[in-house]
Amino acid sequence: MAAERQHTDPDHRAWHQELTDALGEALITGEQTAAATTDRSGWTEPGLPDAVVRARTVADIQATLRIANAHRVPVVTRGAATGLAGGVTAGAGSIVLDVSGLNRILEIDPAEATARVETGVITADLDAAAGAHGLFYAPDPGSVSISTIGGNIATNAGGLRGAKYGVTRDAVLGLEVVLADGRLIRTGRSTLKGVSGYDLTALFTGSEGTLGVIVSATVRLLPIPAETATAAAYFPDVEAAAAAASAIVTAGVRPTTLEMVDGASLAAIDELSGTDYSHRGGAFLLIQTDGYGAAIELQHAVDAFRARATRVDIAADPAEAEQLIAARRLALPAIEARGRMLIEDIAVPRKHLAEVCRQIRAIGEKHGTEVYVVAHAGDGNLHPVFVYQGEQNLIPDNVSRAADEVFQLAIRFGGTLTGEHGVGLLKQRWLADELGEDVLGLSHQVKAVFDPHGILNPGKGI
Fold first, then answer.
1. Distance between CA atoms of residues 220 and 114, nearest Å
2. pLDDT tens digits along 340-389
3. How many whole angstroms separate alpha carbon 227 and alpha carbon 289?
4. How far apart are the C-alpha atoms of 176 and 425, rounded to whole Å?
5. What is the pLDDT of residue 2?
6. How far apart are CA 247 and CA 319, in angstroms?
7. How far apart are CA 370 and CA 374, in angstroms?
8. How many angstroms separate the CA atoms of 375 and 73, rounded?
9. Residue 355: other Cβ atoms inside 10 A
């Protein structure tokens, strides 16, 4: 009924006609908008968006924002919708701006080791294109084969190579952004260094569509490493695996990838794929090193944790390495096959990994919840995953209470509510606990400068 009332409003008819005149077939209404109510979190907004704009050009985006801003209509920007925090869900009374059609790799410059790409480029596609020039794009989220560069920037996504190469922000040099009033601005630079003015590029990175619509980016590329070495180690339990991960760091090894999967997740992977990982140990560490000394560095890492491990497998060739990596990438799909998921995304100082893992398990037992833990152990980013049955929007009370305690746990150990997924819709009520009222207030003031009428992804992020 709310959507129907909105559609009978005279002002709605005015902006809808303006969008129709400006965009023609790029404007979608009616039942075809249903897919835009949710993202990979599974959270669904009530009602249908009033319209979806399938933008084909930057001009389409500018026209949409000018009209929406003039009529104070909320706009939710959407790419591949692979986010896990409800950040691009949209309901009645909103316009969804689908930018996935802006998907060209505009330039790869081997001499400068940079690329210019539109917002809808799939992350893996950029990496593959860079590979033709002996380069690679370092950010490597678990959704690399389906997520877009724009979405990665909007959430400041991390990934499997974060232990050595950092997160998306570390690769972004400059952006083109359409502001809420339709102006197109350029931030940052195409050079590797530059300190002119405030760092607006970093501000937009991780802003979750609340400050502007990213339409293109200039990103840093790196030379493909001369060598890569890979190993998998198995441990009695996840606490032992977490302690081993900390030992690797203190041993002076800087792995490219250091990923952890607990025993429950290994069992889920076995169930989905017919493997036997859970018979090898109660937890799993994947480690990769790269560069000219990759094999030597990997051996140092193995020496650091071998006493704790029940088994160590060192990949003899790239095919074996891919099999080991696949075990980590299969974790979330395997867990998802067991029911509805609430995927959390805390990060803590690495020295606390083992204790935090122990307490997460205790929290799950206390509340009678089914909990799995996978982690980017190299940078302290854990993903406790709660599985339950029923509707995604109706999270059971025991799961909600367990999630509350996990967030409190992260903050108590000097960590954060989110290492890479973003706050979105699902984590807002805990944000003040981490940031404090003064910082949260300043964030709202910054938002008001860029989006004075509050039309950009309202109710998300901050």
1. 5
2. 988 899 999 999 999 999 999 999 999 999 999 999 999 999 999 999 99
3. 8
4. 25
5. 34
6. 28
7. 14
8. 39
9. 15
Q: Which amino acid type is present at position 209?
A: G
pTM here is: 0.92
How far is it, in rounded angstroms, from Cα 243 to Cα 164? 19
Q: Which residues pair with 172 in a beta bridge?
A: 219
Token pair for 228: 């890569």
- Whether the Cβ atoms of residue 216 and residue 178 lie closer than 8 Å to each other: no
Is residue 79 exposed (0-12), middle (13-18) or buried (19+ Cβ within 10 Å)?
buried
- 206-215: pLDDT as tens digits: 999 999 999 9
Q: Burial letters for 443-461: b for 16+ Cβ neighbours within 10 Å, e otherwise?
A: beeebeebbebebbbebbb
Contacts of 384 (CB under 8 A, 6+ apart): 344, 346, 360, 371, 372, 373, 406
Residues of the chain with pLDDT under 70: 1-11, 392
Q: How far apart are CA 384 and CA 370, in angstroms?
A: 10
- Residue appearing with tokens 């989110």: 418
Distance of CA 281 to the CA centre of its chain: 29
- The answer to whether 51 touches 13, Cβ cutoff 8 Å, is no
Tell me the CA distances in angstroms from 361 to 284, 372, 409, one per residue in order.
Answer: 16, 8, 12
Place of tokens 């937890």: 283
The three-state (H, E, C) secondary structure of the chain, written as one string: CHHHHHHHCHHHHHHHHHHHHHHHHHEECHHHHHHHHECCCCCECCCCCCEEEECCCHHHHHHHHHHHHHHCCCEEEECCCCCCCCCCCCCCCCEEEECCCCCCEEEEECCCCEEEEECCCEHHHHHHHHHCCCEECCCCCCCCCCCEHHHHHHHCCCCCCHHHHCCHHHHEEEEEEECCCCCEEEEECCCCCCCCCCCHHHHHCCCCCCCCEEEEEEEECEECCCCEEEEEEEECCHHHHHHHHHHHHHCCCCCCEEEEEEHHHHHHHHHHHCCCHHHCCCEEEEEEEECCCHHHHHHHHHHHHCCCCCEEEECCCHHHHHHHHHHHHCHHHHHHCCCEEEECEEECCHHHHHHHHHHHHHHHHHHCCEEEEEEEHHHCEEEEEEEECCCCCCCCHHHHHHHHHHHHHHHHCCCECECCCCCCCCCHHHHHHHHCHHHHHHHHHHHHHHCCCCCECCCCCC
**Phi, psi of 431, rounded to the nearest 5 degrees:** -65, -40
- In the sheet that holds 75-78, the strands lie side by side as 27-28, 51-54, 95-98, 75-78
Tell me what pLDDT residue 428 has: 87
How far is C-alpha 48 from the chain's CA centre? 25
CA distance 66 to 71: 9
